[in-house]
Amino acid sequence: MDEERGESLKKLEERLGYRFREIEGLDRALTHKSYTHEASPAQTIPAGDNGNEVLEFLGDAVLNLGVSSLLLQEFPNAQEGALSKQRSHLVKRSFLAHLSRELQLEQHLLLGKGELSDGGRRKTSILANVYEAVIGAIYLDSGFNQALEIIQNHFRPYLKPETALSLFNDYKSLLQEQTQQVCRLSPKYQVVEESGPDHDKRFQATVLIGKEVKGSGWGKSKKEAEQEAAKKALEEIDHAQ
Q: Is the dihedral of CA 144, 149, 151, 152 positive or negative?
């Protein structure tokens, strides 16, 4: 690792809120397999042939346990179903990619030329995976208790009473952020159908990204229908990546 890379990673450590004992672990977490596959034999590759995939695998498991622990602390009286739903939102790719952008992980990613030209730094899947890899690297560097502390620091701001509702239900904001980051487009919503009597109306809305319909949803109000459409669009995007 050269001096410039080392200084860059030290700045990232400050944003992460964690100082690595072995900085090579963070370097490995930020090395995508496309970079290792394109590297020449003379280059020193911190992650081996598989890039950060093993750390990603480990980080996924640590994250699920860490987020579960945090939710139990914050919502001790919640039902199991509600906790599962909240955890699924927190560990889904779109939200992990959001955390990656907040921490500016993409600025430190090592990607192959092909992946770079294909917009790899903006891809939800790559950004989510690299966040998992960083958590996996912290776990290997210091153990579960330290990884849990970092997970709590990163996720707890989204669990405050005033922001929890937004996190779990404001699918329109999450979709807006994701489409702006990935394709520089804003979602457009259309109410395409109304049904029922005036006192019990139901609305169907669709959401378009560019000219393509990405989701459709029903609700008792136009806003509710649009939120459901945004939720369906996020699910489709996550499934496709």
A: positive
Q: How far apart are CA 103 and CA 99, in angstroms?
A: 6
Provide the CB-side half-sphere exposure for 82 (13 A, CA): 11
Using one digit for the tens of pLDDT, what is the confidence trace for 180-220? 777 788 999 999 999 999 889 999 999 999 889 999 999 99
Neighbours of 186 (CB within 10 A): 11
pTM: 0.69
Cβ–Cβ < 8 Å for 22, 141: yes
Give the SS3 label for residue 108: helix
Q: How far apart are CA 33 and CA 233, in angstroms?
A: 29
- pLDDT tens for each residue of 10-40: 999 999 999 999 999 999 999 998 887 766 4
Q: Which residues are catalytic?
A: 60, 132
User: Cβ distance 227 to 171 under 8 Å?
Assistant: yes
